[in-house]
Amino acid sequence: ILVALEWPPEFSRHCSVVLLYRPHSDGIAGRFTTLMRSRSLYDGAQRMTGSRCGSSSATLLLASVALASSLVHIKADVYYAKLKNIATSGTWSSGYYPEHTDYQITLEPGRKSFMLDLDVDYQRYPDVAQLPKVKVDGEEQPYGPPGLITKNVTLGASLLVTIKRTVQVIVTNPEGNVSTTYKLDFTLPPDLTKILRPENLVVKDDTGKVLALEPAFHRESPEREYVAKLDSQVKQVWVNIFCSSKAMAELLFDGTNKTHEETVSGGVPLSARAMETTVRTACVFEGHRHTMEIKLEELVDIADVKMQIAAVGGGVNVAHPDPGVFLLTCENPDVEFVPLYDDGRLPLRIEVPGETNYTSGAGIRSPSLKVPADGKRKTVLLVMTSETGESRSWQVVLERYVKPTPEDEREKRAGRLSRAFVLGSVAAGFTAGCLGITALVSGSASFSGLGVALGGSSALRSLVLLLQFVSLSNIVEDDSCVLNDFTDALQWLSLFPVAQKLGTGGTALNLGTPWQASVCLGRAATFFGAIAALHIFVLAFRFSRGGVRHTLPHGLVFGTWEVHCLPYLACPAAFAAVLLFVSPDGVAWVPASETTSSDGQPGTPARWRSFGVAALLGLTGVAGLFLAAVSRAIQQNLVVWVSEGDGEGTAASAGRAVGADVEVGHFCDTICDQLSSRPSDRCFCAGALLNFRWATTVADIRDIDVGELLPPDGLGEEEEEAAIVKGFSKPHVEEDPGSPLANSVRSRRTAVVEVTSTIHPDGFCGCIFSQAGVFAEVGWLEAVLSSHALLRLHHEVGPQLHAFATPLRVEVDQLQGPLTSGRLGFCFDGLRWPLLPPLDLALRGALGALAGMAIAAPSERAVALSLSVALVASVFTLALYHTPFACMTENALLLLSHLGLVLIALSYLGYVRGALAPDVTGGLVLISVAGAGLPLAFFTALRTLALASAASCPMALADEEADAIEGCNVDLTLRGPQDSWLLLVPALCRVPIVNAFVHAMPDITGMHAKTFVTEQFVEGTRPRLEFPVLDYLAVKDKLEAPLVVLIGPGVAHSAIHVAESIYADEDPHAIATEFVLRCIGGGNCATEVIAEVLEVIRKYASPGRILSLGLIVLPMDERARNADGGSSSGDEATALIPSMRTVWKVPQQDF
After folding, report:
1. Average pLDDT for residues 680-690, to the nearest whole number?
2. Lowest mean pLDDT across 359-363, 593-597, 684-688, 700-704
3. Average model confidence (pLDDT) for the chain?
4. Contact at 8 Å (CB) between 756 and 805?
5. Pick from 197, 402, 434: which is nearest to 317 by CA?
6. Edge-to-edge strand list for the sheet holding 133-136
7. Among positive and negative, which fits the CA dihedral 81, 84, 90, 91?
8. I need a labelling partner for 220 at 20 to 30 A (CA). Which of 261, 467, 573, 791 fits?
9. What phi-psi label fits residue 254: left (phi over 0), alpha (psi between -120 and 50 degrees) or beta?
């Protein structure tokens, strides 16, 4: 049984199915077999059942459908009343399928009619009589095989209204009982072309001249982009657009939107910086628009074009000697360049004589051009043609670089003294001058006993590093750059000889030869050796004068001066060492006598390379040793922080004070073995800005543990007050009891030390007053000893008196130790973070090494400069975090110098990367140097001047002496053994003292004397006490406070006066009588004077206080000489001077 099935359209379109029915023998049931001519139906059945290929469900579905169709809808023949295709112009809503009957078609605007083509599938109708009937809008259409049915349908176009029309196509069988109706809905939009298309477009300049448009405007033209050319003098352009009467005209430019019915006009201002301005115009109707774009381009005046030439790659120097000539001096035989000018619309042609011409333009790289050698030149023409046909040309002259001889270069440099070179020379000379003055003053003051300034400064070191890094890292290869002249002048500050510009072989600049590196290392070694030799001479001189039994200050120990020189030599020495080690053997040496190596080729001698490696390793080792030593001192509390506050100051243990926000102070050894004078403030006239604390080493002492001066823990209030009285200081505790300041020592706290040796007399400057301390053994009479007085006093101390040690009460900040005052002193002087100097020394060596790598290995310049930036930025961060200096000005200058180094390295890095031109790089480097160097130079100049002034200013010395004796109330005279010398020192007497003077004026006979008593002889003088020095220094029978101290002139007014002390258990009458007779000799007048003296003793002397009684005798012969014209006050002064003045004159002796 052959069955035709009616399937859904998507199935019947792709396949036909044959069902073969095989009935069983009983006629009740049978089996269907499907024979499919296409796979599509089977696949569709799979999708409907959700099964995959080969599923039994698909077969079951097909069988079920086939059975149902065979039983219900089976027909012997079904008529095909459909069209094979329908075609017409326009846009269809969907493609044509015979089974689809409804379509929407949109026609193009302006069409009044269209053709409708109907195609019949003739293969389905074997007999012509069976062809279907086709009617269009009820009108039957004649046709026959194999032609199409064509029908012209008229709509009628409209400009404003959308026309819609439905066309029905009916297909029926000849009998008329089977039919299919196709519904075609046509839409014809209004024709807005004539409404939106502008009527006219006019562009005028500010003079009213109509500008020609390219292409020319025509109403029917489809062009929407136009160009108007205008002169460069035109400042404004007027644009007019004319639309149809039903449309709106619109004009847009520079954010301005003008709209008007039918026509609009607007003035468009032209920017002087823009070579092209764009204006948009449009005609708008009911949301539809017709837009046109007008580009206003300036006609280029070829005479105003500014041409520049940029060379591609390195080794090319571009010069512009004349307006139409460029000179390219090339190191290589080939060169490429890029022409640069403003207007890229202008074409350029490169004409090479004897070669092919090349087309180029703005920013277009030229082909590789050959550069002649042997001093010859090659001229290339750059020809530019304007739009008006004008032409202009430039000459590009190519020549090879010829390395000048040393004589030519010297003559060239001698004839060119640029401002940058002068500025660099001034900077280098100023820095070297400050360095020399500082070294001379500091060394001389330390050697001569003037003392040293406490609290070091890094401003000078930072300034030197800044200038050295600028000169050593200069990689700018443009000889015309002012930066090169500036750095040339700075080279001698880096110990480098000023050499010629090399500019070849990648070793650009002035520092590229191993010979220069060897000279630098030689100079550094010579300078360092000279300092060491001078230091040895100073030490030999001191030992020759006093041997080892006198004090050698820690600041003069061998190595202290040398260590202070290392920061100034580290950067150039490391630079030269790396340059020697990295430089290839082919780099030529200067002079030629040093260029021959073992193989006969130019190269670096092995001895200099070894020397360079040794120098670099030495710097690294010294920095590492200092860093380890300082870290050990801090971790093991070998140093302690001593505050310099005004009574509330403290000193914390070093391990917890480092980096803490503590007040101003300094580091001191925990175990101290030397004593300095009491630090005093010496200031320059700018003392508000710079104030030096000045001190000098005066003696060796027995070891004293500063840590033991801390008050014991757990004291009560009463015990704590008692501890303070005994010399302990109350801990300064802030909000946090665990603050680093909890365990601290106040700088003004006193401690008793034992002096074992003093500075040799030649070690003191005779005009300098320096307070050493207070003699601590006589509690009621404390003598304030200067360094000279301590020397004299300590000379009298023997094994019976204090076991060769003089006890002194001193302040804590006078104590010194080998760590903070010796070779490591520069790590602690003026610093709160002592790790900075070793890190700074390592940084200088690293910067020098990286600069040498950048010069010797051009391919690694970017890496070397990047590492330099990273290193300096790291130290900058540490300094910002720790605030290493006790002076905030020093901290600010340190950060400023490191910031300048970072900016300089970044500028050089930008030049290496090609981001910065040579002139820009030079400008940025000079600005960075000025920004960081000027504040450093100003502060350095003030500090250098203040240092010289503080070391020699006599006004400061008088102030220091007055400050030292301010708390003293008596003048103490100590008489040497057998009256060999007298020593006058200020002292504090804790026993009340009364001062009186007995004046005696014998008559001419000597039998009588006129006497009277005064409380003060000279206004403002202190009472005076006098004792033998051995009595004052006695250990067993310590000196007791006397009842009366008698002082008077010797017989015949001898140079040495007489003095006697009367104690409570002695007879005042006998002692006073003997004293008067010794002063005025025999005679009856002595009785009257004795009576007057005894009366004063009786009246004023009493237990618990001391009477200081002075006898002043004025003989008759003196009064007679003064009667001729002298004054009485002068007579009294004459009587006083022989008995009192000699006290101030101490005979000079060697001890």
Report:
1. 58
2. 593-597
3. 76
4. yes
5. 402
6. 91-92, 102-106, 179-188, 163-172, 133-136, 139-140
7. positive
8. 261
9. left
Q: Are 530 and 800 in contact (CB under 8 A)?
A: no
3-state secondary structure 956-968: HHHHHHHHHCCCC
What phi, psi does 874 have (nearest 5°)?
-65, -45
Partnered with residue 1019 across adjacent β-strands are: none
Structure tokens at 13: 């379109």
Regarding predicted confidence, which is higher, 990 or 743?
990
pLDDT band at 727 (very low <50, low <70, confident <90, very high): very low
Bridge partners of 263, per DSSP, are 242
Helix (H, G, I), strand (E, B) or coil at 223: coil
Pairing between β-strand 276-285 and β-strand 248-253 as defined by DSSP bridges: antiparallel
771 vs 659, 678, 784, 972, CA distance in Å? 33, 5, 7, 15
pLDDT for position 1116:
61
**Cα-based distances in Å from 226 to 254, 294, 344:** 18, 5, 20
**Sequence letter at residue 433:** G
- Give the burial class of 615: count Cβ atoms within 10 A of its Cβ; 0-12 exposed, 13-18 middle, 19 or more buried: buried
Residue with tokens 């823009």: 274
Residue-wise pLDDT for 941-954, tens only, equals 988 888 887 777 64
Give the span between the Cα atoms of 658 and 886, in whole angstroms: 11
Asked whether residue 597 carries a pLDDT value surpassing 50, the answer given is no
Which of 401, 417, 258 has the alpha carbon at shortest distance from 318? Answer: 401
The tokens for 12 are 């019947």
Do the Cβ atoms of 755 and 700 come closer than 8 Å?
yes
Tell me the C-alpha to C-alpha distance, in Å, between residue 647 and each of 644, 749, 943: 8, 9, 27
CA–CA distance, 754 with 906 (Å, rounded to integer):
58
User: Partners of 186 in the beta sheet?
Assistant: 105, 165
Among 864, 762, 795, smallest CA distance to 546 is for 762
**Rounded to whole angstroms, how far apart are CA atoms 526 and 447?**
22
pLDDT given at position 843: 93
Give Cα separations from 1071 to 457, 728, 794, 1075, 1076 (angstroms): 62, 44, 31, 6, 9
Pick from 974, 976, 1020: nearest CA to 995: 1020
Q: Which two tokens stand for residue 887?
A: 């002076």
Any idea how long the chain is? 1151
Going by pLDDT thresholds of 50, 70 and 90, the confidence category of residue 1084 is low
Q: State the residue for tokens 């998507």.
A: 10
Q: Which two tokens stand for residue 507?
A: 């070793």
Rounded Cα–Cα distance for residues 1122 and 501 (Å): 86
Tokens of 684: 């320059």
pLDDT digits (tens, 9 = 90+) for 301-333: 777 788 888 888 878 888 888 888 898 888 888
Q: How far apart are CA 285 and CA 541, in angstroms?
A: 110
Contact 790, 843 (CB under 8 A): no
Q: Which residue has the tokens 């008596």?
A: 970
pLDDT, one tens digit per residue, over 405-440 is 655 555 555 555 578 888 888 999 999 999 999 888
Mean pLDDT of 276-302: 83
Residue 641 is which amino acid? W
212-260: pLDDT as tens digits: 888 888 877 778 888 888 777 788 888 888 888 788 888 888 778 888 8
Distances (CA, A) of 271 to 205, 240, 294: 14, 20, 16
Of 222, 225, 235, 242, nearest in space to 295 by CA: 225
Instruction: Sort strands 1106-1113 and 1058-1062 into parallel, antiparallel or unpaired.
Output: unpaired
